[in-house]
Amino acid sequence: RLTDLVIHVPGERVLFLPEQDRLTARLTVGLVAIDEGLHETFRSARAVRIALSGGLDAKRPSGINLYCRVRLPAAAQSVTAVVSDDAAAAVGGAHLRMSAAPAMGSDILGLSLYSLSEDSVWVEVPVGVAAGAGDDQPASTTIGPAMKSLFEPGEKVACGFRMSGGAPSGAATGSVPGAPAGPRLLQLIVLREDAPVREKRIDIEGPTADLVKTLLPVEGLASGDYVLAVREILPDQVIDRGTTSFRIR
User: What SS3 class is residue 185?
Assistant: First the structure.
């Protein structure tokens, strides 16, 4: 399965120092994946240099999203990420358990939550074991919403994902089992302790592989743990398409 691994680092945790008339941070990013049999399935360690535009007075980002596109086995995986700040001599880590990949056409792909109240620098981390190597060119970056799972009260939250399977049912190829022809109706439900507290319905037009992006109704929710469930409403049944968890601080 093709997977985008994203590591969110709060901007204040990264030390930017003057270097050639620009504020620059130097990080080393390590990723290791193992399966349930404790066999290593992926390893990467790369040095990344982030140079901010705007000279020495450049605004420091509120967050940094380090992303790496990798291929992993379809079986369940355990992924460990370690980020070290070379200038600050600081190290942070995170651990992620990934369930087995669903059968193609049964679920949605890449269900993620984003903060629209926080802009982050997105930095692509090349795959491979070559920490410290390379021509020392600044990493390619873009500015966009921060991908997170922990939010402040009142923070604007959006979700994004792709519908798997390609064209709607009834097309010549790439049909999704159980999906009707034409527009598809999705139900987004925010659950707390399995009880629904918010709901939103959206119509999906056109090819189902298109990226879906929508605001999430989280206004007024109390602090605590929640689950976002995405369901598809068919004429004769409702199908669970995917879930992701989040927390309000």
Answer: strand
